[in-house]
Amino acid sequence: MSIYDDLKQALEVIQKGGNIELIKKVIDIQKQAMDLMEENIAIKEENKSLQESLKTKETMVLENGFYWMEIKNQNETKKEGPFCPGCWIKENNPIPLVFNPEKPYDSNRKCPGCEVKFVMEIYEESSGSYMADHNDQYSDLM
């Protein structure tokens, strides 16, 4: 049984006795309990969000001008990305860079968040690694 239920039962018992001042006091306490329950829920949601943000931050790595998310499983590490360096540094917001749908054979990408265009150059053919060229827009951040 919750504190709210206990207060509700107490209020019902007090109402039968007819003590108006006591009824008002229990109603006030009941309201305070509801406010505390709502605050508790909000704090739990914020805590969950902060834990997820911290977990994401721990997986982000900078490689050749781009941020990548390293996801470690039992025996392997998988990389996802690339993510926009500006959006990650400024806002801790991992926004994946996307291809231009109008130019499907173009390897360049764009951030849908800040609209910065990135020139993608494959510098190591065997690994498929990319190097960023984004007109030094974010060079002061890195």
Question: What keywords describe this structure?
Answer:
single chain, alpha+beta, 2 domains, 4-stranded antiparallel beta sheet, 3-stranded antiparallel beta sheet, 3 helices, 7 strands, 44% helix, disordered C terminus
What's the story with the biggest beta sheet? 4 strands, antiparallel
Structural class: alpha+beta
What value does the Rg take, in angstroms? Answer: 27 Å
Q: Tally of extended strands?
A: 7
Question: Topology of this structure?
Answer:
Blueprint: H1 3-17, H2 20-59, E1 60-63, E2 66-72, E3 77-83, H3 85-91, E4 98-99, E5 109-110, E6 117-124, E7 129-133
Antiparallel strand pairs: 1-2, 2-3, 4-5, 5-6, 6-7
Written description of the protein model:
It is built from 3 helices and 7 strands, in the order ααβββαββββ. By secondary structure, the protein is an alpha+beta fold. It has 2 domains: 3-57; 64-133, no CATH class. The strands form 2 sheets. A 4-stranded antiparallel beta sheet has the order 4-5-6-7, with no helix packed on it. A 3-stranded antiparallel beta sheet has the order 1-2-3. Helix 1 runs antiparallel to helix 2 (20-59).
In short:
With 142 residues, this protein is α+β, with helices and mostly antiparallel strands. The protein has 2 domains: 3-57; 64-133, no CATH class. Helices cover 44% and strands 25% of the residues.
